[in-house]
Amino acid sequence: xxxxxxxxxxxxxxxxxxxxxxxxxxxxxxxxxxxxxxxxxxxxxxxxxxxxxxxxxxxxxxxxxxxxxxxxxxxxxxxxxxxxxxxxxxxxxxxxxxxxxxxxxxxxxxxxxxxxxxxxxxxxxxxxxxxxxxxxxxxxxxxxxxxxxxxxxxxxxxxxxxxxxxxxxxxxxxxxxxxxxxxxxxxxxxxxxxxxxxxxxxxxxxxxxxxxxxxxxxxxxxxxxxxxxxxxxxxxxxxxxxxxxxxxxxxxxxxxxxxxxxxxxxxxxxxxxxxxxxxxxxxxxxxxxxxxxxxxxxxxxxxxxxxxxxxxxxxxxxxxxxxxxxxxxxxxxxxxxxxxxxxxxxxxxxxxxxxxxxxxxxxxxxxxxxxxxxxxxxxxxxxxxxxxxxxxxxxxxxxxxxxxxxxxxxxxxxxxxxxxxxxxxxxxxxxxxxx
Length: 435
Hints:
Elements: H1 7-39, E1 43-49, E2 54-57, H2 59-65, H3 69-72, H4 77-84, H5 89-99, E3 104-112, E4 115-127, E5 133-142, H6 144-179, E6 184-188, E7 194-197, H7 200-205, H8 209-214, H9 218-221, H10 228-241, E8 247-252, E9 258-269, E10 275-284, H11 286-307, E11 313-317, E12 322-325, H12 327-333, H13 337-340, H14 345-349, H15 360-367, E13 371-378, E14 384-395, E15 401-410, H16 412-434
Antiparallel strand pairs: 1-2, 1-5, 3-4, 4-5, 6-7, 6-10, 8-9, 9-10, 11-12, 11-15, 13-14, 14-15
C-alpha cells in the first residue's frame, strides 16, 4: 500500500512546479518581446549583453546599417567599431551615462546603399527584476526625410524672410512716395472702401485721411452741386469701360472754400486679372484756374484795345510770324486774318525774303524795350506814303520776350507839311526881297 506524501514532499513538489512555470513564463515573455522587436518596421533595434556582445539585431537595423544579423550577433561592439573605423569614445560615454540610470541621445549620418542617411539614436539600459543592469539596447530611427523637410522648410523660411524684407522695403518706399506726394492719392477696394488715402487730402480738402476712411461717401459729399453729374457720369464710365479720362470739377472744402480739382482714376487688376478696385489722383488746380480766368480776361481786354486801335497793328512772335492782326491793318492790306496768320511779316508787308533792315520788331527782340522808327512805302501809282512805327515787347512769367506788338501810324500828311514849310519860307523871302 502506497503511503501518502508528506507535507514537506508536497511543498517541495509545488516549488519545482512554480519554478518550471516561472521559466515557461519568462521564456514566453522573452519570445513575445523578441517577436515584437523583430517585427518593428520603422525602428531599428540592436541589443547587447552586459559585455557589449550583440545578441539581437532586427531587420530594420539590417536595412539601416547594412549588416545582416548573422554577421553581427556574437560580435563585440569594440570589434564592430574597429570594422567601421569609428571612435569608441562615444560608446564609452553612452555606457557611462546608462550605468548611472540615464539615456544617451545622438544624431549621426551614415552612408549605406540607399545613400547618406540621417539617424536619430538612443541608448538605454536593460534591467532585470532585481534592478541589475544586464545589457544595452540601441533604438535608431531614420529621420532623413524629416531632416530634408526641415532643411527645405528652413530654406523656404529664409526665402520667405528675404521676400518679406523686400516687400517691407517696397511698402516703405511706396508709402514714403505716396505719403509725401503733393497730389491727393487714393485707392478704393471693390466695395468702395479706402485701402489707402494720402495725407495730402487734408491740405486740399480740410478733411483728414481718417475722416475719409471712416466715411467713404465723403468724397461725393464735398463735390460742388453744379459738378455732381459730371463726376457721377465719369465714375460710371470708368467702372464700366476701364476708360482713363481726366476731368476737372469743383469741391467745397471743410472751410466752405471752393477749389478746383483735376481728377484721374482707373480700375486696377492683379497679375491674374482680378479686380483690385480703383486708384485715383486729385490735383488742386485752383491757382491755375484763377490764372486762366485772369488770362482770359486780360486777353479780352487786350483784344478790345488791339482791335479798337485806329492805327494798323499786328502781333508777331520771335520767329517774325504773324500771330494776330487788327481790323485796320486787314482793311489796309485788303486781306483776311486766315490768309496771313503764321506767315512772315516781312514777306506779307514788304514782299521781302529777309528781315527788313530797320525792322522795329527786331530791335525790340534785341534791346528788350519799346522802340520807334520811320519808314516809307512807294505805292503802285508812284506816290509815297510815310509811316511812323512803334513796337513794344510782351514778356512771359519768366521775363522772356514771346511777342512784339507793332503799330504803324500814317504820317504822310504831317511829313508833307514838314517838307513844304521850308519851301514856303523861301518863297516868302523871295517875295519880300522883290519889293
